[in-house]
Each structure stands twice: as C-alpha cells, then as structure tokens.
Design a protein that fits this description.
The chain is an alpha+beta fold. It has 13 helices and 13 strands. The strands form 2 sheets. Strands 6-5-4-3-7-2-8 form a 7-stranded antiparallel β-sheet. A 6-stranded antiparallel β-sheet has the order 9-10-1-11-12-13, with helices on one face. Helix 11 crosses helix 13. The longest helix is centred in the N-terminal third of the chain and has 23 residues. The chain is globular.
C-alpha cells in the first residue's frame, strides 16, 4: 500500500539549508520520495542496463546513469531463505509464524545453519578489518549490532554499537572480558558511577559521623549497594540508554562471543533455530545479492482550483546508510535539485547515531577506506562524526540543490 497523504514540502524543518545532510546510521525500512518531475528513469530498466548495474556494483566502478539506480539498490544478505522475510528480525514473530521451518526441530540442521553463519560473519569481520567492507549489521531477534571499520564515524578503531541490550547480555559480555561503555548512561547519569563505587555513601556517612548521629543510621552494606547497582542496570534494559559501544580489539572478542552465544538464536517460537541476519553493502562469503524494491507512481493532487501532478518513488527493504546517500545523489541530478522524502526508520537502530569520541588519527585513517566499495562522496559523509544523537532523519528535502531535514 502506497501512502500518498503526505506533504510535498516539509514544514518546520529543523535544519538550515546545506549541501550535505548528516550521516544516518539507522536502517530504514521504507523511503518515499516525491517530486514535481517524473521518476521514469527508475522504471523498467533494459536487461543490458540492469546487467551493467550489477557489474558496476560488484566491481565498485563509477556510477553511470541510469544503470546506477540498479547499482544503488543492491545489498548483500545471509542467510537467504526466500520464503522468509529476514529483516527486520526484532518483532518479526508474527510475520514469520506459520511459515515452514525445516530446522526448528532438527538439531543437526540448526548446527549446519549456524556453522555456515559463523563462516559468513567471520568473513565480514575480516573484510571490515582490511577496510574492504565499510560496515555491516548483525540483526538478531532481540538486538542489532552495527560494526564499523576504523576511520568511519570519527573513530580511528573498529567500533561496534549494540542496541538494545539487557543486564543479562551485558553481564555475559563482561564475563568474557569484553570492555564496553554505555554512552547515554555515562552522559546523563554520571552520578551513578559514584554510587556504584560507594563514594557518595561513604562521604555522607563521614558527614554524619562528624554530626555524631552515625550510630542511629545503618550504613548500607555491600549487598544493598550491589542490589541498588543491579536495579540501576535493569532500569535501562531495552531502553535507549542501554545502547552499548565496543571499540578496537574488543570488537574481535565480541565476534567470538556472538558466535558462541547460545541465546543469540531463539530456542522456541517462529524464529527458533534461525541464525541472525547479516546485512552488508559489499559481497562476503556465503552472501546472496538482493535488491531493494523500487516502484514509481503518479498521482494528481488538488491545489486550489486545479490538480497538480505529483510523482512518487517508493523504495522498500533494508535501506542502509550508503544506499540512502547514493539514491539522493541520483535524485539530485535526475529531479533537478528538487525533491522531498519521508524516511521510515527501524526504531531499534535509531540509537546508532550516538556520538563516539573523535579520534586524533581519524583524518588520515579514512584514506585507507577508498577501496571499501563506496562512492567517495558517500564515504566522505560516513567518515564524519555522528551528529543526530538518539534521533534519526525522518524527513529530507532538497530545494534548489540544498538539503534541509528534520529528525
């Protein structure tokens, strides 16, 4: 169903006009572009143009028009089970329920699926480490992980962002020696750290001692402090504040942890035994080439006493950051510098726009990423420090070749 009850111009846009819009690391499930110019260039590509688009993508060659629309819609997926929708995975039980899953009660088949998945996951990480893959997503039925190569998002080391997390997952990671931070907790609740260390309690009791009333008030023991700490831990579970950031060599430890984590795969329900979905902009071992679905539609909308033609292009599927950027580059020229877009975000991934601290060596690091398969202008956008924080871009508009957006 194509919802066209949307404004062509975007009201109350929160940004000022700019030649570029900020990187948005969330995954979009749907894009709806509208323009006064037709999208005929995106329709019914000739067989040769489609083939050239595939070849351009696989060889990471320069974008040529109109084959570039095909090139921009390609993504790589593992596992590939055509009868199942493998993204999104969080909250997907209802859509998957009733579909035949040959492996749900077959332990041997589950082991084969997980073994193949581990090979694909390791292949992706190795490509990322070699800067031949810019980033990829691991989508489980409970949480999503974004792995980014060194040089992207203002970091000089590999980063992995996990959202949402639970106390159980965080404790399991700690037990494996994986160091991580909770950036939003650290940003908004710095006093919690003092509380966990018992500093504030000790300080208050030394003050009571000076007042001579310390014997009338029971000092909290180690157990009650631990219980308070655990309560604070549980309070952020599944919330935006639970987003975890892993950096550097700890990301390799995270890779091994996820491969060996029993709870990574659902033990019961419609997703039982189904490995997490791997999404990447570039090919990797065991991956299947997929394309986002794109369709254009023309409608007439009433404006005062007459009808105006409004042209729309709808793109559905897991739209990754590079895809959003390359599509807008195409639209910039094809739609003569004027279009608007409504972006539908997969909400659990909106937190991937939190800011990592800017690295000193970052400016030289990104130069090694020129062979990662992305257009250089797209790469230039993705190396910048994230600025959207806990939000993601919902509305994007280009007027006179300048962007304005609203998150």
């Amino acid at each position: 169903h194509l919802d066209l009850h949307l404004p062509v111009s975007i009201p109350d846009v929160s940004s000022s006009p700019s030649t570029e819009f900020p990187a948005d690391w969330s995954i979009k499930t749907r894009l709806l572009f509208t323009s006064s110019q037709p999208f005929t260039w995106a329709e019914h590509l000739k067989a040769q143009e489609e083939a050239q688009g595939f070849a351009q993508h696989c060889r990471a060659t320069s974008i040529n028009f109109p084959q570039s629309i095909q090139q921009s819609l390609i993504y790589w997926l593992h596992p590939s089970l055509p009868w199942l929708q493998l993204f999104p995975r969080i909250g997907a039980d209802r859509k998957i329920a009733g579909k035949t899953s040959l492996w749900s009660h077959d332990e041997t088949l589950q082991q084969v699926l997980m073994s193949e998945w581990s090979v694909s996951f390791t292949s992706l990480y190795n490509l990322l480490k070699a800067k031949l893959c810019p980033y990829f997503y691991v989508c489980t039925y409970q949480f999503t992980v974004l792995f980014r190569a060194a040089g992207l998002a203002g970091s000089d080391v590999i980063t992995a962002v996990i959202s949402p997390t639970t106390r159980g997952l965080r404790e399991a990671m700690r037990n494996e020696g994986i160091e991580f931070s909770l950036p939003l907790v650290e940003e908004t609740r710095k006093y919690v750290t003092k509380l966990e260390q018992g500093v504030s309690d000790d300080e208050s009791f030394s003050w009571l001692e000076e007042m001579g009333v310390q014997d009338k008030i029971k000092k909290p023991d180690a157990i009650s402090i631990k219980l308070r700490k655990e309560k604070n831990e549980v309070q952020v579970d599944h919330k935006p504040e639970s987003v975890a950031l892993v950096k550097g060599t700890n990301t390799f430890m995270l890779l091994n942890f996820l491969i060996n984590c029993k709870s990574l795969v659902a033990a019961a329900g419609p997703q039982a035994g189904l490995p997490p979905t791997l999404l990447s902009p570039v090919a990797f071992r065991g991956a299947t080439m997929q394309t986002l679905k794109a369709r254009s539609i023309n409608v007439k909308t009433p404006v005062h006493s007459r009808y105006n033609d409004i042209f729309s292009l709808e793109v559905t599927g897991p739209v990754m950051p590079h895809c959003l950027h390359t599509l807008t580059m195409l639209l910039k020229s094809a739609q003569r510098g004027a279009f608007s877009a409504v972006l539908y975000t997969h909400e659990p991934t909106a937190l991937f726009n939190i800011c990592c601290s800017l690295a000193q060596k970052w400016e030289t690091m990104w130069k090694d990423l020129t062979k990662c398969g992305l257009h250089l202008k797209t790469l230039d956008q993705l190396i910048q420090l994230p600025t959207l924080g806990k939000s993601s871009i919902r509305l994007l508009e280009m007027r006179n070749y300048a962007y304005i957006w609203k998150s």
